[in-house]
Write a structure and sequence with these properties.
- By secondary structure, the chain is mostly helical.
- The protein has a single domain, classed as Potassium Channel Kv1.1, Chain A (2-Layer Sandwich).
- The protein is built from eight helices and no strands.
- It has helices at about 20-30, 40-55, 60-70, 75-85, 90-100, 105-110, 115-120, 125-130.
- The radius of gyration is 18 Å and the shape is elongated.
Length: about 140
């Protein structure tokens, strides 16, 4: 006997890529982060953090926040800082500010496209960064 599938059987999840949704489901069933390739981790943890915040999954959010602290560098520091501000990740925000407290890191980050996005998205954070003392 073949079951019929109707539109009611389909759950549409907008604004989330399939690998992120699969990772979210993995976490729901295992209470752990899925294995992923090293080159995908940084971006995946960013998307997974946003999904965790969207669905109020605080433990997953904290796990992603912790992992992202390991990936902060000149290239992505402003992108991660923007993410931290938008999703209220105080530990991640603090880690970004710590990284950017180095004047060389701050200068390089301010020259990036990510800084332009940060300036538009989170103007108060831009002001905080501009007021950081140069050593």
């Amino acid at each position: 006997m073949k079951e019929s599938r109707t539109q009611a059987d389909v759950v549409q999840v907008d604004d989330m890529e399939v690998p992120v949704f699969k990772a979210l489901l993995w976490f729901l069933y295992t209470d752990s982060l899925p294995e992923m390739s090293k080159e995908d981790e940084d971006a995946m943890y960013q998307h997974l953090l946003a999904a965790a915040d969207r669905y109020d999954m605080e433990r997953l959010k904290l796990m992603c926040e912790d992992k992202l602290c390991e990936y902060i560098d000149v290239v992505n520091s402003t992108t991660i800082l923007t993410l931290a501000e938008q999703h209220h990740c105080h530990g991640l925000k603090k880690a970004c500010f710590s990284f950017l407290s180095n004047p060389a890191n701050l200068r390089a980050a301010m020259a990036s496209d990510g800084f332009k996005h940060l300036s538009r998205s989170c103007p108060s954070i831009e002001k905080d960064l501009m007021s950081m003392p140069e050593s």
